[in-house]
């Protein structure tokens, strides 16, 4: 902050003000007119509370969480109005500059009283200046200390004057002098970009102590010419790379229940299947997700990316999406990086309790097919053992084929041809059969309304001068969703052609989500420590019923699957931040995270009945009727340490050096077994069921150890169903940031990554032996960014970086697995290589007001050996398969426009409308092995997001309309005469409404998926799969306390 | 019932406690010496055999056998003096890895493929592990020389005593460098050759190539019985799968008996097969797809109640590269009694059936002899890419299209008559079945552009009768080497 003149202590405009305790959620507004404090302005908050600015130009208000308007009135005329958002427990500093001939400028800074050292470091500064006297005599060499997490001190000069600059926030102030009685003052608020004048009177040691408390010893003085133009530059403007941030204020506004819903509010971000984030059209392998700096493993074995539905919004303090690579980001952040920051320090004891309920049109209240197995704790998302793999069956399967069941390498084991005599073998199989006959027939239930309950509470304590804070959140959500009017087909020829399989399906999923966060933080001096414990569970019980014609046999078929899946993520993280020296220009942070991600999917049941002969009832297809038990566990250890050195920051040459190390070790154990039945057709009508009931066929009477006598238990597990793998990633990075004249910023970075991946799977071809596959590579990733802040409203950014894309565990294995989404077999490719990507990015940004801006970006990416999922050349039963291959090359060029404009509907700005839109057009092309070209997998041709919001602060209500559409997206590449599988454009329209009563009670209402448009996958122009989800209505109450 | 289960569980855990207790130790190596194997009766026993160096001696069902190694990378001969045992999958050569654009050169490291010959002497018996996926794969570049004779056929079966089960073991899978219509052949249009790697039936690896005259060896007098193990859900394998097998391969006198899946299935390629006996197979007896253009003569197909269609024909893959084989002198005996469609032609297939008999074993006429399905198949029927020539059929409806009676096929030489097939000789007694003129394939091909029968060289024998067996023949070609009582 530039030094300003202080009005002389003897000046007439001396205002004495007793210090009162800090009000809750205090708002401080400073108004400047033509560079000088404006003292004759009426500030009207939310159209109802008026206050005059004092001589320093300031006005203070109590503030509640939510949207606010500010109207500035001078002589009965509105000179400016604007609005801002604040979250519960936040303090807000606002600077307004009004100048003749230009539009007014507003800078809003919202923050929590308690912050980590790093948060404070990046915050704007304010200062306190004034004079210390004793009995009218200046006190020289008095030490003035401001303490929050760390202490900043200065001493008075010969005239008793002092000037101390610190990050805005709330401090404890002390003034000490050997001859004087100590002055102590709590809760001194330093306002961003404001120099506050405070004069102090000290008393001699001989004075009576009571005076110190009773009499005001502080004068608040006006400080002139403190207008600072830098105050009005958006912090986003200065972020080093293209970053989009959703803070807690916006998260509160959008009211999404989980992060997946929130991130689509950011430019060029889309979400697939309500869970998986895509940045500028790139997802999966091209996007990384981090939780407070630690990597997150995916809990979905078929997907690369982290399912975001695991994380509710109320545990989040901020979401950052970074669209260009910097050396401090994971090397795989080609499309970008999503950083989830959880909450730790509240300002005071405060909490929130929410309850919501909703229904889906055409589902809630209707009768739906349901899982016949249900446990006492299903409502909590925990199976009580009803679906657990019967231990006896597991034991029998082990006895019958120990090599398979124990995951041994057949090459290491020689077993006799027959382990058991025929009699023993039959008894074992009969016994196993008995344990598997139950819970095959579909049940029915009424789809209950959706309910979600969430609560959070946080508090802050002082331990001496140090802060101890905690934040705890617990969420419970349950309900049904559906895919109705579903169509699932296959085609006779690979490019399309006649319809082969032709099914209609209906699917419903009952889900229970439970999540919790406990964050405990401790701030002391120059260090802060945080412990984050996160648990998140999603349990889904899904029933899909299909009817149609099976293409190969031409038979009418009735099929259903019952799925039960518990996905859980548990992590314990410790984070620390430290200033390493007195001046605070050398700092470090570290984190250590242990996490476990599991997927427990017991008892997937698949049932198929076919009308084999037109003149008889349906027959159970024993070969297609199975029970499957899956268990996957990922253990993840992640430790990182970063250093920052602010080499110089004198305003003309700012230099920063960053250095960091990270080590990640992850291991996965995936086990699966599949059990089925068989019968050798010796009893002709055994498989017939008039009523399509499995229990007519597979029952205690029919189960036998011998397939000639009845239904025989049969282990259908394949060696490749289970696998183990691990990966190690060691990285180091260095980044140098040079900022010249606050105008030219250069960031040079380099990152080194050493990667090793091993997957142990079993070959299905050949000898079915153990077949380890893996990658062991290291790479150097340079990056360069240049930002040119050529005017105070406009800037241009250039970035050039190299990133990497790596295959994951299963993709490099020789095993085959099953993609549930598209119903296809997927085969890994052990020859898969890493893919290197060159990224170039230009972005122009123009901010014409605090809340209005436009940016245009052009981005280009060049891929060497891009990894692509392709339709496999396959024959017979291997048909309809996918595999992965390295294409020759790929490139992608896109343009992205993002803008936000705001219209006040009245002069008080209590009613306003904003329109935020972002759109991108992307042209991508991949050259596959052999030279064919097509679009790059997973990249939509275009994305379009539109958010229109209406804020009515007078009546405390707001309405938000959100629209999202993406263009054609290729899911799988067809080669030769095969057609690509395309996800057709899908339109999504949501409406949110919120009204607050009595300050702490809020009513919310939502309509989701109002257009109910069809989700359609096509191949060769024909519908491959399609369904609708139905419109969902939701209403709820939030209570803040 | 719960009590019964509980008791069972107790019994099982009691019985298996020892083994189950150490199941967590996955590094354990369980080695039980091959020649001290525990047999059926729980003791050492069985006859001793003298096995060649490459084979382990094992005892199965108290009988000493020589175990065929899982991977065969050098020429070996299975001799008829000992019984042979396949414990699991046996892969001959390494041509089921990915191949480069040049047939014979593997994609990995550009190394030449192993060219291995597996010779099997006449009279050899090969037993596969019961209830297992055990199967024999001949990969690209390698060959099987199964040199059986009528007196001494080669028999593949499961290790149990009889030949009457089904789905008890895998089957035979032959790969070749033949053309497969899923592959791209840009050289047809003057482009550079590209690799052709078709992920094949039964997780058998990659097959296909650029040469429809390739040879995968010889199958002479070979019986494959009670195979078709379902190795993964809904995934059985055929008795003999021919994946892109070329016409250089000799297939003469083979029987597939009681297979749980199809009897023989041809995926692309151009292999010719004669003297086929397909009995009691539970899915289709003959299945072709993906651009198969070979020839078949003398096929005796006998279905039972569990069987599906006698022929299921598809093109699939590339609709401009049709499956269009020629079948001459076949007798198809459906199970009758409501079995609806003997031949099911679909998914854009072509195909030509000459001098054949379509009837049922029950004496009742078939509902439908030929079912044409899907628009592309109907187009092929109208464009002479499908033909029935000199055919005797006993069916209520000769032809349907997508379920309704139709008249798309030329029936000039189709005779609808009651099924007159002799129950022992399987020759047709119908007047129309005898005294035919030998087929002039050149003239036929001229009017049927998709037919390639005239290019079959001397594969086809001229016959003057319809059906697999000559009426009044002195000797029956299927006698003496096929499974007893299977006919």
Keywords:
heterodimer, A: 1041 residues, mainly beta, Immunoglobulin-like, Ferric Hydroxamate Uptake Protein, Chain A, domain 1, 22-stranded antiparallel beta barrel, five-stranded mixed beta sheet, 56% strand, B: 487 residues, 3 helices, globular
Describe this structure as you would to a colleague.
The complex is a heterodimer of chains A (about 1050) and B (about 475). Chain A has about 1050 residues and is mainly β. Chain A has a 22-stranded antiparallel β-barrel. In chain A, strands 1, 2, 5, 8 and 9 form a 5-stranded mixed sheet that branches. The longest helix of chain A is centred in the middle third of the chain and has 13 residues, at about 420-435. Chain B has one domain. Chain B has 3 helices and 32 strands. Chain B has a 16-stranded mixed sheet that branches. Mean pLDDT of chain B is about 85; it is low at about 1-45. The chains are: A mainly beta (about 1050), B mainly beta (about 475). At the A-B interface, helix 5, helix 6, helix 7, strand 31 and strand 37 of A face helix 1, strand 1, strand 13, strand 16 and strand 17 of B.
Write a compact overview of the structure shown.
Chain A has 1041 residues and is mainly beta.
SSE diagram, text form:
The complex is a heterodimer of chains A (1041) and B (487).
Chain A: E1 27-33, E2 36-37, E3 42-45, E4 49-52, E5 58-61, E6 66-74, E7 77-86, E8 90-98, E9 105-112, H1 117-121, E10 125-134, E11 137-138, E12 143-147, E13 151-155, E14 161-167, E15 169-176, E16 183-190, E17 195-201, H2 209-214, E18 218-221, E19 243-247, H3 248-254, H4 259-263, E20 269-272, E21 276-279, E22 287-291, E23 294-295, E24 316-322, E25 336-342, E26 350-360, E27 367-370, H5 391-400, H6 402-405, H7 422-434, E28 443-446, E29 450-463, E30 466-493, E31 496-524, E32 527-550, E33 555-579, E34 586-611, E35 619-620, E36 626-649, E37 653-678, E38 703-704, E39 711-715, E40 723-740, E41 744-762, E42 770-788, E43 794-805, E44 816-819, E45 824-827, E46 835-847, E47 853-864, E48 867-871, E49 881-886, E50 889-904, E51 911-927, E52 933-934, E53 942-952, E54 957-966, E55 969-972, E56 981-983, E57 986-997, E58 1001-1008, E59 1015-1019, E60 1022-1028, E61 1032-1040
Parallel strand pairs in A: 1-8, 10-17, 22-25, 38-39, 45-49
Antiparallel strand pairs in A: 1-2, 1-5, 3-4, 3-6, 6-7, 8-9, 10-11, 10-14, 12-13, 12-15, 15-16, 17-18, 19-24, 20-21, 22-23, 24-25, 26-29, 26-61, 27-28, 29-30, 30-31, 30-60, 31-32, 32-33, 33-34, 34-35, 34-36, 36-37, 37-39, 37-40, 40-41, 41-42, 42-43, 43-46, 44-45, 46-47, 47-50, 48-49, 50-51, 51-52, ...
Chain B: H1 2-21, E1 56-60, E2 63-67, E3 71-72, E4 76-78, E5 84-86, E6 90-92, E7 117-120, E8 125-128, E9 136-138, E10 143-147, E11 154-158, E12 172-175, E13 198-199, E14 206-207, E15 217-225, E16 230-232, E17 235-236, E18 240-243, E19 250-257, E20 264-267, E21 272-279, E22 286-289, E23 295-302, E24 311-313, E25 326-334, E26 341-345, E27 351-360, E28 366-372, H2 375-382, E29 386-393, E30 395-401, E31 404-405, E32 414-416, H3 441-447
Parallel strand pairs in B: 2-5, 3-6, 4-7, 5-8, 6-9, 7-10, 8-11, 9-12, 10-15, 11-15, 12-18, 15-19, 18-20, 19-21, 20-22, 21-23, 22-24, 23-25, 24-26, 25-27, 26-28, 27-29, 28-30, 29-32
Antiparallel strand pairs in B: 1-2, 13-14, 16-17, 30-31
């Amino acid at each position: 902050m530039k030094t300003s003149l202080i009005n002389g202590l003897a000046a007439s405009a001396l205002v004495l003000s007793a210090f009162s305790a800090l009000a809750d959620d205090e708002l401080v507004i400073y108004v400047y007119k033509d560079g000088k404090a404006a003292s004759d302005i009426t500030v009207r908050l939310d159209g109802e509370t008026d206050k005059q600015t004092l001589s320093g130009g300031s006005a203070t208000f109590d503030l509640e969480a939510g949207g606010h308007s500010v109207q500035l009135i001078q002589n009965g005329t509105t000179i400016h109005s604007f609005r801002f958002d604040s979250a519960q427990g936040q303090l807000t500093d606002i600077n307004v500059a009004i100048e003749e001939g230009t539009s007014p400028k507003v800078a809003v800074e919202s923050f929590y009283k308690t912050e980590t050292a790093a948060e404070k470091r990046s915050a704007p500064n304010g200062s306190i200046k004034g004079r210390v006297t004793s009995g009218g005599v200046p006190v020289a060499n008095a030490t003035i200390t401001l303490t929050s997490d760390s202490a900043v001190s200065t001493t008075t000069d010969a005239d008793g004057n002092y000037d101390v600059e610190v990050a805005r926030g709330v401090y404890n102030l002390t003034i000490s002098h050997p001859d004087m009685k100590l002055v102590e003052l709590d809760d001194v608020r330093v306002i961003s970009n404001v120099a506050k004048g405070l004069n102090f009177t000290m008393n001699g040691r001989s004075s009576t102590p009571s005076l110190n408390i009773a009499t005001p010893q502080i004068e608040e003085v006006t400080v002139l010419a403190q207008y600072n133009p830098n105050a009005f530059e958006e912090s986003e403007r200065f972020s080093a790379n293209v970053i989009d941030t959703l803070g807690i204020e916006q998260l509160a506004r959008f009211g999404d229940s989980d992060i997946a819903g929130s991130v689509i509010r950011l430019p060029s971000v889309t979400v697939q299947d309500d869970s998986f984030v895509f940045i500028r059209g790139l997802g999966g392998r091209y996007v990384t997700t981090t939780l407070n700096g630690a990597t997150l493993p995916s809990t979905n074995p078929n997907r690369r990316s982290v399912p975001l539905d695991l994380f509710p919004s109320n545990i989040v303090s901020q979401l950052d999406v970074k669209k260009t690579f910097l050396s401090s980001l994971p090397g795989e952040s080609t499309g970008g990086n999503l950083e989830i920051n959880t909450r730790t320090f509240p300002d005071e004891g405060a909490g929130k309790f929410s309850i919501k309920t909703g229904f889906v049109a055409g589902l809630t209240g209707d009768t739906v097919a349901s899982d016949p197995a249900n446990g006492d704790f299903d409502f909590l998302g925990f199976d009580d053992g009803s679906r657990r793999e019967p231990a006896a069956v597991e034991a029998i399967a082990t006895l019958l084929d120990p090599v398979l069941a124990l995951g041994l390498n057949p090459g290491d084991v020689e077993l006799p041809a027959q382990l058991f005599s025929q009699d023993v073998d039959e008894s074992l199989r009969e016994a196993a059969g008995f344990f598997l006959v139950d819970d095959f027939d579909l049940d029915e239930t009424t789809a209950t309304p959706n309910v979600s309950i969430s609560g959070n509470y946080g508090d802050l304590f002082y331990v001496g001068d140090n802060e101890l804070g905690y934040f705890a959140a617990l969420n419970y959500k349950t309900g049904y969703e559906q895919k109705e009017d579903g169509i699932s087909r296959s085609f006779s020829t690979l490019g399309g052609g006649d319809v082969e399989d032709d099914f209609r399906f209906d699917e419903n999923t009952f889900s229970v989500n439970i999540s919790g966060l406990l964050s405990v933080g401790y701030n002391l001096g120059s260090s802060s420590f945080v412990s984050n414990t996160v648990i998140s569970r999603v349990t889904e019980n899904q029933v899909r019923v299909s009817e149609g014609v099976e293409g190969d046999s031409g038979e009418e078929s009735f099929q259903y699957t019952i799925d039960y899946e518990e996905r859980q993520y548990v992590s314990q993280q410790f984070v620390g931040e430290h200033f390493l020296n007195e001046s605070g220009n050398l700092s470090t942070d570290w984190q250590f995270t242990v996490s476990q991600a599991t997927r427990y999917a017991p008892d997937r049941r698949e049932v198929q009945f076919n009308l084999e002969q037109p003149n008889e009832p349906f027959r159970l297809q024993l070969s297609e009727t199975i029970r499957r038990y899956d268990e996957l566990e990922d253990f993840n250890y992640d430790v990182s340490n970063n250093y920052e050195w602010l080499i110089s920051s004198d305003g003309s040459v700012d230099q920063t050096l960053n250095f960091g190390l990270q080590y990640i070790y992850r291991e996965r154990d995936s086990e699966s077994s599949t059990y089925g039945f068989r019968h050798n057709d010796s009893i002709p009508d055994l498989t017939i069921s008039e009523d399509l009931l499995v229990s007519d066929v597979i029952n205690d009477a029919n189960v036998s150890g011998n397939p000639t006598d009845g239904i025989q238990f049969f282990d259908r597990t394949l060696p490749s169903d289970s696998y183990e793998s691990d990966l190690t990633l060691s990285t180091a990075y260095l980044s140098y940031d040079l900022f010249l004249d606050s105008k030219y910023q250069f960031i040079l970075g380099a990152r080194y990554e050493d990667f090793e991946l091993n997957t142990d799977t079993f070959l299905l071809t050949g000898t079915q032996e153990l077949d380890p596959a893996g990658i062991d590579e290291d790479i150097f990733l340079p990056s360069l960014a240049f930002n040119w802040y050529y005017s105070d409203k406009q800037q241009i950014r250039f970035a050039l970086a190299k990133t990497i894309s790596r295959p994951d565990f299963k993709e490099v294995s020789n095993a085959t697995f099953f993609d549930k989404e598209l119903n296809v077999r997927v085969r890994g490719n052990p020859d898969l290589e890493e893919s290197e990507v060159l990224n170039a990015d230009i972005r122009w940004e123009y901010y014409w007001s605090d809340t209005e801006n436009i940016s245009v970006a052009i981005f280009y990416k060049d891929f060497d050996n891009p990894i692509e999922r392709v339709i496999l050349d396959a024959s017979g039963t291997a048909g309809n398969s996918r595999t992965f291959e390295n294409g020759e090359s790929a490139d992608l060029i896109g343009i992205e426009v993002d803008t936000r404009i705001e219209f006040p509907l009245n002069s008080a700005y209590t009613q306003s409308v904003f329109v935020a839109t972002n759109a991108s057009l992307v042209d991508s092309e991949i050259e596959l092995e052999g030279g064919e070209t097509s679009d790059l997998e997973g990249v939509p041709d275009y994305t379009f997001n539109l958010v229109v919001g209406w804020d009515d602060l007078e009546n405390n209500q707001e309405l938000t309309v959100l629209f999202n559409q993406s263009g054609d997206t290729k899911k799988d590449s067809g080669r030769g005469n095969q057609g690509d599988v395309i996800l057709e454009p899908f339109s999504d329209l949501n409406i949110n409404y919120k009204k607050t009563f009595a300050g702490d009670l809020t009513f919310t209402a939502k309509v989701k998926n109002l257009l109910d448009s069809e989700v359609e996958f096509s191949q060769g122009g024909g519908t491959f799969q399609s369904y609708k989800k139905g419109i969902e209505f939701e209403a709820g109450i939030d209570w803040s306390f | 019932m719960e009590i019964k289960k509980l008791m069972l569980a107790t019994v099982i855990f009691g019985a298996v406690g020892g083994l189950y207790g150490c199941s967590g130790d996955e590094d354990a190596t369980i080695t039980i010496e091959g020649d001290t194997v525990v047999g059926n009766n729980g003791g050492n026993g069985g006859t001793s055999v003298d096995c060649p160096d490459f084979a382990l001696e094992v005892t199965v069902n108290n009988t000493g056998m020589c175990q065929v190694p899982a991977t065969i990378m050098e020429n070996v001969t299975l001799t008829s003096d000992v019984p042979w045992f396949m414990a699991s999958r046996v892969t001959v050569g390494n041509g089921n890895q990915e191949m480069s654009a040049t047939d014979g050169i593997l994609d990995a490291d550009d190394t030449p493929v192993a060219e291995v010959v597996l010779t099997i002497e006449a009279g050899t018996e090969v037993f596969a592990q019961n209830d297992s996926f055990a199967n024999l794969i001949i990969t690209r570049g390698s060959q099987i020389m199964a040199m059986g004779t009528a007196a001494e056929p080669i028999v593949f079966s499961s290790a149990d005593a009889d030949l009457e089960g089904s789905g008890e073991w895998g089957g035979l899978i032959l790969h070749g460098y033949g053309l497969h219509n899923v592959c791209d052949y840009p050289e047809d249009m003057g482009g550079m050759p590209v690799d052709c790697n078709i992920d094949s039936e039964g997780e058998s690896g990659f097959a296909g190539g650029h040469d429809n005259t390739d040879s995968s060896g010889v199958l002479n007098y070979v019986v494959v019985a009670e195979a078709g193990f379902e190795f993964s859900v809904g995934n059985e394998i055929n008795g003999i799968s021919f994946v892109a097998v070329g016409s250089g391969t000799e297939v003469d006198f083979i029987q597939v008996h009681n297979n749980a899946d199809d009897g023989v299935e041809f995926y692309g390629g151009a292999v010719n097969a004669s003297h086929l006996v397909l009995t009691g197979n539970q899915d289709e007896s003959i299945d072709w797809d993906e651009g198969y253009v070979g020839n078949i003569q003398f096929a005796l197909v006998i279905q039972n109640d569990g069987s599906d269609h006698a022929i299921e024909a598809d093109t699939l893959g590339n609709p401009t590269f049709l499956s269009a084989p020629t079948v001459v002198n076949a007798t198809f005996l459906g199970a009758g009694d409501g079995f609806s469609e003997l031949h099911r032609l679909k998914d854009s297939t072509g195909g030509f059936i000459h001098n054949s008999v379509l009837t049922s074993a029950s004496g009742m006429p078939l509902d439908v002899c030929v079912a044409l399905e899907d628009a592309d198949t109907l187009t092929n029927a109208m464009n002479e890419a499908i033909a029935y020539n000199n055919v005797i059929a006993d069916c209520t409806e000769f032809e349907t299209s997508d379920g309704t009676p139709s008249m798309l096929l030329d029936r000039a030489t189709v005779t609808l008559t009651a099924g007159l097939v002799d129950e022992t000789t399987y020759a047709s007694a119908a007047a129309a079945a005898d005294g035919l003129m030998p087929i002039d394939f050149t003239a036929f091909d001229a009017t049927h552009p998709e037919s390639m029968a005239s290019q079959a060289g001397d594969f086809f024998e001229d016959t003057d009768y319809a059906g697999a067996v000559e009426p009044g023949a002195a000797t029956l070609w299927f006698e003496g080497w096929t499974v007893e009582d299977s006919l």
